[in-house]
Each structure stands twice: as structure tokens, then as C-alpha cells.
From TrEMBL:
Protein name, entry field: Ribosomal protein L9 domain-containing protein
Domain of life: Eukaryota
Organism field: Nadsonia fulvescens var. elongata DSM 6958
Pfam families on file: Ribosomal_L9_N (PF01281)
GO cellular component, one term: ribonucleoprotein complex
SUPFAM superfamilies in UniProt: L9 N-domain-like
Lineage of origin: Eukaryota, Fungi, Dikarya, Ascomycota, Saccharomycotina
Keywords: Ribonucleoprotein, Ribosomal protein
Family statement: Belongs to the bacterial ribosomal protein bL9 family.
Length: 273
């Protein structure tokens, strides 16, 4: 028995009219791109300033701005959550900032021009003061090690005070070459000591303000120069103060070892009868 042949049917696609597609697409596009007005509760780079009313997509407001509490909805008949910042106010704020930056720029140019017209003598004086500050710092770190006599005069116009002596080290260490007997090749004079102390405290110190005492064999003697390795007592007279400022001076030889220096004893002076 022969089976009846299968009937093949062709599916015919159902086309919608172009007008329907266009209308549907336009309706969907219009719905997805419709923006709403929101007010920014904080400044967001690329969007606007705090208090400004902007237009954004509903999804962006719902999923980001509103969720992060960075914006609020602007509804008819409802007061804004914070004071509104209009475009005119934003432009005025930007203009104020531009004016401020312009004034700062002009002030910087004026300062640069003034520095370019400073008297060369003033520049030399400032450089000398800077070198003096550097030298004082180095001397403090090295405990004022003397290498050669200094005949220059250090004048600042400032009187010596207790505050100026705050930078004075507890032990003033002076270093100079000496003989094997312990006597220095060149004694440290009071004038040289005064100059170094003036540089250290950055104030004017005179020789009359200083008093150096040598304690030896149970006796104290005021000396006029430091000519032997060892320790001395330094007193500085401060104007307006009853008590004198006291420190220790330690004279060290640069040519003898510490062991050799510890064995040295200053010979007694024999007075002529």
C-alpha cells in the first residue's frame, strides 16, 4: 500500500510594515533617552557643582546618583533639598577664581622683577650671611675645631643674651697642632676665641665678656691665652645678668694621640724671686 506523499509547506515570514517598525523604534528610543532633572548634592567632576540642577537619564539617577546619595529628584511643587546653584552663580565663582589666580601670578612676577633689581651689595651681604650660617652649623657639628688663626671680625649688631647661648655646646672642643710637650704650636688668643664664640651664638661678644680659668694644682688662675692641651673653665658675662654663663673648653692636639695627651702634665711655672 502506497503512502500518500508528504506535503511540504513553506513557512511564510510575517513582515510588519516599515511604518510600524519605525514607530516602535522611535517610541522605544524616545522612552530610553528621556532625561529627568536632578539636583546635585555634591560636586561631581564632569557633571556639575553642588546645588546645580542638571538633566540625566533615569537609570543613571536610579542606579548611581540616588543610590550613592549624590543627587535628589526635582519634583514639581517641591522645594529643592539644598540651595540652588544657578549657571550665573557658577560663572561668577569661576571668574572670581580666575581673578584670584591672576593676582597671584602678577604678585609672583613682581617679586621676581624686584629680586632681579636688588642692589649687588645687598646680594653679597645676604650671601655672606648665608655662608656664616653654614659655617656656624659646621662648627657646631665639629665642636669648633680650630685649624688656623682667624683674624676676621664677626659683627652682627645683636647683643649677647641667654637665648643666643642656647646653641652653645656643653664642652667647647678646640683642636690645634702641638709639640710633644703639650704646648700648642700657636696659642689660641682671647681675640680668636671671642671671634669663634661670636660666630657660634650669632651675637657680638667682646674679649671683656670672656674669662678663662685654668685650674691646676688646686689653684685657679685667669689666663690670657690657651697654650697647652687640657681643660679650661670658660665664663661669659651677659649684660643684665648677675650670674655668668659657664662652659668647659677642651683643647686637643691634632698631632698627638689621645693616649699621649692623657700622659701630659702642664709644668709648674717657676716664679722669679
Amino acid at each position: 500500500m502506497l503512502k500518500s506523499p508528504l506535503r511540504l509547506t513553506r513557512s511564510v515570514p510575517i513582515f510588519t510594515s516599515p511604518s510600524t517598525l519605525c514607530l516602535g523604534s522611535a517610541a522605544f528610543s524616545t522612552k530610553s533617552k528621556k532625561k529627568i532633572s536632578v539636583q546635585l548634592l555634591t560636586k561631581i567632576k564632569g557633571l556639575g557643582e553642588k546645588g546645580e540642577i542638571i538633566n540625566v537619564l533615569p537609570a543613571f539617577m536610579r542606579n548611581f546618583l540616588h543610590k550613592e546619595n549624590q543627587a535628589s529628584y526635582v519634583l514639581p511643587g517641591q522645594e529643592p533639598k539644598i540651595p540652588v546653584l544657578t549657571k550665573a552663580m557658577i560663572d561668577a565663582k569661576k571668574e572670581e577664581l580666575r581673578q584670584k589666580n591672576r593676582l597671584l601670578y602678577e604678585a609672583a612676577l613682581a617679586k621676581k622683577a624686584a629680586e632681579a633689581t636688588i642692589d649687588p651689595a645687598q646680594i653679597a651681604l645676604e650671601n655672606a650671611r648665608a655662608r656664616s650660617r653654614v659655617n656656624r652649623s659646621v662648627e657646631e657639628l665639629t665642636n669648633l675645631r680650630f685649624t688656623e688663626p682667624n683674624n676676621t671680625t664677626h659683627t652682627t649688631g645683636r647683643k649677647i643674651t641667654l637665648n643666643a647661648l642656647d646653641s652653645f655646646p656643653p664642652v667647647l672642643r678646640l683642636k690645634r697642632s702641638s709639640q710633644t710637650t703639650g704646648f700648642l704650636d700657636q696659642p689660641i688668643t682671647m681675640a680668636e676665641l671671642t671671634e669663634r664664640i661670636s660666630q657660634l651664638v650669632d651675637a657680638d661678644v667682646s674679649t671683656t665678656d670672656l674669662e678663662v680659668i685654668l685650674n691646676q694644682n688646686g689653684k685657679s688662675e685667669v689666663i690670657s691665652e690657651l697654650d697647652f692641651v687640657g681643660k679650661y673653665q670658660l665664663f661669659i658675662n651677659i649684660p643684665g645678668q648677675t650670674d655668668k654663663f659657664s662652659r668647659i673648653i677642651s683643647v686637643v692636639s691634632s698631632t698627638l694621640s689621645p693616649i699621649e695627651q692623657n700622659k701630659l702634665v702642664r709644668p709648674r711655672e717657676v716664679k722669679e724671686e
